[in-house]
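Input record (one chain):
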Amino acid sequence: NIKSESNNTSNSAIYVGGATVIVNAGNVTAITNSPDGNPSGNNGANAYAFEVHGGNLQVNGGNIRADGNSLSGSRRAVYMYDGKTTLNGGNYVVTHSTVEGVNNPTYPTSYVASLGRYQSGFEHHSVSLTITGGTYNVSSQKTAYGVYNDYSNQDFSFIMSNGDMTITAPSAYGVRSGVNTISGGSINVVATTTGYGIDSGSNTITGGKIHATTYGIYAGTTTLGSNDDTINISNPEIVGDAYALYQGTVNFYDGVLKGKVGDYTTDAIKAIPDGAIYHKEVIDEYHNCWLEQGENYLEVNGVEYNSMTKAYEAVTAEAGTIKVIASIVSEA
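The corresponding structure, as predicted from the sequence alone:
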């Protein structure tokens, strides 16, 4: 068991400076109490369970906590400047305890993990975070993030294949910026004002569930599924209590979109599989949208096709003419 606790001074329970650190069990706790804030600036005093400046951090289990009562400052399970972090399991709690008698804290922020910022003259090297399991509960009186990239650094990569992440705060965000690949697990964002599952970044999502109070995906460039011959109509699942998709560039190949106001806003989807059509219906108060292979409506030399592109390719390769054999309707 490792515990680091301070008053009005930032601290880390475990500092990884270049070696390989493996945590299999036990308790890792960082607590910073700064109820009056920090006179040195608006960021206040911080608490990090792990601070990674290089090397490799691997957590396979245990109870990880970053906490402390404060009006400002940050609480982070992992603060990364450099190196590789892999979270295979464990129970993570990142929160700001309330300060008695204060109803308007200045800027307390909580994170599962974030890319740190160097002083002037330093640069980030390649930083990666992989989550393959574990339970993550992050909360704050003001703002909370799941995975956050401070400077939209494209050298920061995040991979998630399993695990359950819940982010709760007035303003809450699941993944912000970076290059992100999600193939499983769940991200649940619970906010009273603004809640985004995916805030921005370059995102490839082939599985799992993302649910947010406002938008499942707010912005960025996102590919849902794989552009192949099969369409999965239920995975990945993107849910927004307003809209599943709001803006940005989205290539929609697999999965289902769910939103109470609507499934997606106009022009959010830029590409779907060739020959696919939209299917829409309201289920349990949510507007659902998924894709299905369209019926064949063209014929070339006795072979039927469900897209003009496929029919044109057949004509180019085999000669002949394109014949319309049916009509088709797609709900865009």
